[in-house]
Amino acid sequence: MLLTVDVGNTNITVGVFEGDDIRTTFRITTKMPRTSDEYGMIILNLLEQNQISRDQISDAIVASVVPNVMHSLEGAIIKYLHITPIIVEPGIKTGIRIVTENPRQIGPDRIVDAAAAYGIYGGPVLVLDFGTATTYDLVDKDGSFLCAVTAPGIRISAKALWEGTAKLPEIEIVKPESILAKETISSMQAGLVYGQIGQTEYIVKNMIKEANVGEVKVVATGGLGKIIANETKVIDIYDPYLTLKGMNIIYKKQNRQK
Fold it and tell me: What contacts 115, CB < 8 A, 6 or more positions away?
């Protein structure tokens, strides 16, 4: 089985693949500093809780946008799973050709999402990831990563509201019954959710229009992506496991399958 580890700014999402099938997934918070032993014990315990033993894990691949956790995390995988993981970084085979001005500035999470969307759904494809940041990445029919847009994620915007003001409370991010809010909490929810829907529709339509690459499939992922995908017709597919699937696809290109 393959262990896939997606290190995001908020959570570390771990998936276990048996072939192309996802056996299980679980999450670990990113921001808490941990030693390699702590990461190792957490991963082993969560695998065990999902009826998977360490001996069943034959290899591992990691994509990270948080460099300062990598030493401990990579050390944990080596020490406790006896595997030296593949790291998604410049030079690795992905099936995606970066044609932006500075390819090394494109984060591994975006490359993995692009590889997954292109590999599974074909191109041209526009990939939306509703994570800590909301990202929009366009891949053409030949697998070239053409351009990208980065915007604040919904949670970042929400945090700015309640931390930057004296009276606005911390709220749950859900779509209110109506955009015509009549009290503070639902008015904040309306601004955050409907604002994200409006942003999504504008950016998607204009990226497709200006790129002029023909009919484009729009694929979304990320924790809050389902809320947005359910409320707009510009998103064709919502795939919550797109990033993990991308790592599985990239792993197969490394000729290291065990």
Answer: 94, 95, 96, 246, 249, 250
At the fourth CATH level, the homologous superfamily of domain 2-87 is: ATPase, nucleotide binding domain (3.30.420.40)
Would you state the structure tokens that stand for residue 188, as one six-digit string?
């904040």
Contacts of residue 238, Cβ cutoff 8 Å, sequence gap at least 6: 219, 220, 221, 225, 226, 229, 230
DSSP secondary structure code for residue 189 in this structure: H
Taking 80 as the threshold, does the pLDDT of residue 256 lie above it?
no
The kind and range of the H/E element at 195 are helix 184-211
Residue 258 pLDDT level (bands cut at 50, 70, 90): low
- Reading the block at residue 46, the tokens are 């969560």
Model pTM score = 0.91
Note whether 2-87 and 97-246 share their fold: yes
- What radius of gyration, in Å, describes the C-alpha atoms of the chain? 19
Contacts of 9 (CB under 8 A, 6+ apart): 30, 65, 66, 131, 132, 133
In this structure, CATH architecture of domain 97-246: 2-Layer Sandwich (3.30)
Residue 109 appears among annotated catalytic residues = yes
User: Contact, 104 vs 55, CB < 8 A?
Assistant: no
Q: Which residue has the tokens 């409006």?
A: 198
Catalytic residue among 6, 59, 109, 129: 109
Q: What percent of the chain has pLDDT over 70?
A: 99
